[in-house]
Amino acid sequence: MRVYLYEMVSGGGALLPAAITAEDTGLADIQDFHEIAPLISDGSQMLEQLVELFLEVPDVEVWVSVDSRLKQFGQQLMERTGPDGNQPFVLYADPQTPWAVFEECCRGADWTLVVAPELGGLLEDACGRCVVSGGSLLGAGLKLRQLGIDKQRLHHWADNHNIPMPPWGIAEAGASDFNWSPSKTLVKPIQGTGGVGIRVVGDSLPSEGKWLLETIVPGIPVSVVVNLTKEGAVLLPPCHQILGGAGGYEYLSAELLEHEGHKQRAWDLSRRVLNELPLGGSCGWIGLDLMLGDNPEEDLLIEINPRVTSTISVLAELESFVPDQWSKSTNLTELMSEEINGK
Prior knowledge:
By secondary structure, this protein is α+β, with helices and mostly antiparallel strands. The chain folds into 3 domains: 2-138, Rossmann fold (3-Layer(aba) Sandwich); 145-164 and 217-340, D-amino Acid Aminotransferase, Chain A, domain 1; 168-215, no CATH class. It is 31% helix and 24% strand.
């Protein structure tokens, strides 16, 4: 079985985020996606981690596409070797026509795993191109992706399905009907990733663009990776997220959540969310970002990440773990094998 791993920035799409404009996202004053070097570093690490994981899966041929300007990185990937002596097949993509190799690989693979930022519709664009070219996505289905990409849509869905999220509103062109406070309200991009662009509202709302407003809620930021298979959802050990950066809300790192009570609460809320989510057509990994309050009644859903998230690096280091699941699998290799073999 052939699996194609595509991480957008290192895979030939490094110029795409820099082309995103204020009209697309309202993030013209945020430089994170205009600084290519940090993006390439983060994306390369994610892709390398995925290659190592999939090389462990029996009877899998790993394909990867790499930006043609990153030949050294491509060579490093080709030197990776699995337990059966298998190595990844690396193709180089021209950054001026980044979709050509991508679509060819999607057609030639049994499964394609796409990692791309939700920013400016980049994730949805890549997933759509994969399907149109004849590929099969290993990840969230269309309706689930739409909820994860658009934070306004997610809040409407949560309100309609009694899923607890922070109080929210919309700001547009510097105005809002939401009762916001300078020190108690967050402003977020409608489409964003990794916490980039999230900040506390100052004395006034952003004068341009459309933004999500959320009441700041105290608690423990937690991420739960969910493995979706035909048999049902498999919940992996929750991770405590370490946040920081320019606005204080960007993802920096994660560590396993050790408190047993908090772990069970994270799984309980995750199951409640999953019971309501439109999971049709989904197969693979997603991430749920939660906030655990002082008691279970204050636990909230914050975001849905319809793709592989950075916390996978923490879970990949575990030789075994005890997930909340129907399956007997106790490590990522077994779980990935279940995904791609249709279990």
